[in-house]
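FORM 7B: Structural annotation worksheet

SECTION A. Query
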Amino acid sequence: MPGPLAVTFGEPAGIGPDIAIAAWLKRSELSLSPFYLIADPAFLAGRARRLGLTVPLAATTPREAAAAFRAALPVADCGVAVTAAPGKPDATSAPAAIAAIRRAVADVLAGEAGAVVTNPVAKNVLYRSGFIEPGHTEFLARLATEATGQPVQPVMMLWAPELAVVPVTIHLPLTDVPRALSTELIVSTGRIVAHDLKARFGIARPRLAVAGLNPHAGEDGTMGAEDGAVVAPAVRALRAEGIDARGPLPADTMFHPGARMTYDAALCMYHDQALIPIKTLAFDHAVNVTLGLPFVRTSPDHGTAFDIAGSGRADPSSLIAALKLAARLCAREASALAAAP
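SECTION B. Predicted structure
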């Protein structure tokens, strides 16, 4: 059996602690797999009091978390005393968030946790502390590379039962996207998506729909050359490797119900091309999944919501979906390992 899920509390001034507590309170009702929260225990107890909730906390190690989970919320100390108030990050916010991520990755790579589930961080708060990565995904990749000695290309997939999307370029200004996009990047991204859909999601022959960059996928070059010069060769290369990929496709006709039935994941050329459709279809239950890592990582598909932190109004639905998907992927990996000769 895989170990318990390692859950980070994210930006402590945000809603991460609130939704983690809310998810634990629904553990029996939703049959959630055991997890433990990496946080400052004193801070977490204070947040629970602010929310008016009676939440027993159990100081724990990963090995003890499953046994404690039914009666108390297992908490592993992140090692940083947090003083941030709801909605007001302070100098302790970034060190605590980073320490929790480091601990989660170390636990899963040591085989003590089954997966990493991260709560939202505030990138601007991290940047002010000297954090050099663009975000969670790149930091997780660096930690994995440092621990294993193997280079990692992380791929962000937003997943929901209705739709799975992958932005090939992520947090870039729109003006920078054409320069950042390359045939090689599309091919390597598609290769990782196809591999992980097969290995972790159990899809025997993943089908990839590849969006064009320009309106109408370039309209035969009359609306931009990139689709013919960059995207189309990538699709041909993926198909040559035996991957069921098609495109470039006009993005404006890729996301209606009939179109979604024809593929398992959509590769999109930039952030909003991917995230607008999935947030329209599955705003409260989409999950951020990082592919290409040597471990399972999921996250809620929303931000820190400073304006409602500590108010009791935060919706834990996306975190619950992230916990359920992480448990499902872990169970499948464990089953596949057990069945291997």
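SECTION C. Observations
The two ends are 18 Å apart (CA to CA). The chain has a mean pLDDT of 94.

SECTION D. Sign-off
Analyst initials: ____
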